[in-house]
Predict the structure.
Amino acid sequence: MADIPTGSVTFLFSDVKGSTKLAQLYLDKLPVMLKRHNEIMQESLESHGGLVFRIVGDAFCCAFEKAADAVRAAVAAQMMLNSEKWDEAVISVRMGIHSGTAEWNGKDYVGQLTLARAEKVMSTADGGQILISEDAYEKITASEFDELLSSANGEISFMDLGERRLKDLIQPVRIYQITAAGLRSEFPQLNTLDVRPNNLPVQISNFIGREQDIKFIRESLRKSSIVTITGTGGSGKTRLALQTGAELCDEFTAGVWLIELAQLNGADLIQQSILQTFNLKEQAGQNPEDILLAFLKDKEILLIFDTCEHVIDSSAKLAEKLLRNCSKLKIISTSREALKIGGEVVHKLASLTTPVPEKENTLEAISQFEAVKLFIDRALTVDANFQVDNDNAPALAEICHRLDGIPLAIELAAARVRILTLQKINERLSDRFKLLTGGKRTVLPRQQTLRAMIDWSYDLLNDNEKLLFHRLSVFSGGWTIESAEEICSDEIIESYDVIDILTGLLEKSLVTTKEDSNVIRFSMLESIRQYAIEKAGNEEEINQRHLNYFKKLVDSTKMRFGNEDMLKWIRKLDAEMGNIRKAIQWGMEHDTESAHEITNFLTEYWQAKGFFREGYQTCKKLLELDENAEPIHKANALHNISTMLYSLANLAESEKYADEALAIFREIDDRKGIVNCLNILGVVSNMNSERSEEAFGHLNKALEISRELNIKGTLANTLFNLSYTSKIKNEIEKLKEYRYESLSLYRELGHSNKVALILASLGILERNRKNSEKAREFTEESLSILREIGDKYLESINLINLGCINMDQNDTLNAIELFDESMSISEKHGYTANLIPALYYKGEALNKSGDYNNALVNFRRSVEFGFEAGIDFFLWKIILGMGISYFNIDQHQRSAGHFACVYNAYEISSINFGKSNRDELKMYLERLRGILGNEELNNIVKSKESIEKDEMIRYVLGNQ
């Protein structure tokens, strides 16, 4: 097919009727039969211009530009299926054709209403039957009708089966049966809602997702008589109950009946509502309850008790009595809390699935999520021209995520696409209660605005529940029972009362829970939390308690040197980072001293996780807000900023802040602070080959003070940093001594991320010593620790190391994949320093594989990043690699210029270049001497003798 159908599309859906039973009866033969079925379907559909875009088991989903082609394909497939000689069992296929709007996203179709209705048309058919909706029927032109009448398969015609209510509950649709000579024409009554008595209301919108929820409720009703769907307001409990009822209609001879309780303002009206539903009249001297029992006693019937929370006690009592006396009765109830009666199965309805905003959210990537499908579906009902593309897909992903996948909130947001772009809707969600208004006038008032939806739940709380609800809004990202007890209790709510009141909020669906690593965490959906914040007002005392609690939590000294190791400390902080960030923010405005203490404690965590930019921005903002900070706080903040800037490869700024911090630490005689600053100044200096002696001086002084202080963590850090000066001096045994002593200290302290760092460095050392297996062992152990911690920074370094090991073992393809993976992490998180080696080594791998032009692209990017960051650690090796690339694409003079730069650098400046690199350089220079001649090569080498570094970098980048 030349073009993929998009816009107005006709879909043909099919599946094998009774495939489950066939599997039970013909287990051995069915795979062969289904293989032949698939061949027939594929051939028939594609030969008539169809695009088979999805096959799930025995179900085919196919798209056509023309409805007439779908009809021809369906008839051709049924003809071939009928003529096939099946072994014992017969494959009987039902088919449905429907037309509507759908867009192709590169991998699948987006257009839930159209796709769902096509599936419902198909599921209405019997085996061997082809049904077509009026929407598709009307797409067939007069000339196409004439062609169908004279089809090669015999006359194709259409039998009008009338308007039918499909089980999607939206407006009825006229259905036609497609007939043709040789095809069966008599079938049982259509499997539609019209078959069973019911009062299920027509819906004006499509039902999205929830397949697993429907499956759970159906299975639960086979074992129990009542299922209660609970969940927060607007989560779609009613719509799920109605859809489940529609799916179950065939199983109840007396039908499925909705009992609406939302507008009842008295418990005694429930029975009256049920009587009215069945047109039952009260008789003098008869109890309404007895009338109901007599009517329902022997009936196979499903009742849907919708919205029970405001009449929960009466609903529970009536449901229990009815179920106890009516053996064939089943009930689905919806409520914000369980009925708590015998035999009740409670189904807690989760929000719709949403994308994660931090990921790369293309249209294809987000189309699979239920919340996105719902938004698009509802947006198209208010603006037929609404479109999602790769440019606005990230905004839509963030909208759905920020609205917690709450269906009502998403529908209200989608209604705004008429006047606002997705980007603007996302921006305005900070004031969501004003934005998310204007729901349909035909729905209940509580469903017309987001605020009204939550008001309904809030008004049902008692005073203590309301008070705790207000106080819990102080948490960001959830809480534990211990933190709630400590922060939210006082003389009004005692600590021991918190658990009971919190349980009440949980049961009323205003709070949710999640168990992670044997710890139960509580949280609120963000919209509910924003509502609670508004109700709470500015409670300074609660915010101060929150700050104090999380200040204690992040006290890294207690955590790291107590019984818990680094990994447990990191996991604890991972879970509470939302609260910690909020505590810092509040502290910046109300308690700067505590904010300083938290950020200083948190620096180790930021480093362990690779959150350098967050650490830098937080400490810098705090310094700017607190101009009169105590000297110790100011010095710590300056040092922490320096540390983060070093990891972000901003060496000049890192050195500046370290110098400022060092001056203050010396003034107040804080020797540990002095050591920390000397370490930073040492590693910054060490990144420039011309400052190696300066680096050695800083770090030797740091080592001297570290040994005097005997603080193991500080000493271990200094030893590790000193190992790099030993590398420059080519003192390998000294390097190993420093690293192994540092490793031993960090293992003793339980510093998992530092252990991983040194293991990574030992992996590099062993690789340089040609001990690939030992190098891989160190590197993979390091990677394992880092992935458990979630340290992306060091993970990206280890991926480079692993790639180099693979390259040494001539596995160039896997090496390049590892370098790319490292670069992807570094680009996402801003780890510029790690991009430099990743690009260099990828260039090396591409040279080895013969892709010299792409190698040059990577080498140049590596030089550019290094130049911007002031890092020349890999510069000479990169220039050598570029020279090799140019040599192999026959740009010999350019190649000679690059080799000349390197030759002069190690001959004149005595840079530590390594014997293998020098040998390779000499080999290429001799080969060039044979190509260019002795005189020309000597002239090129001489021209680069006095070249300045900046000029040389411009040369290798091709800028001169």
In short: The chain has a mean pLDDT of 86.
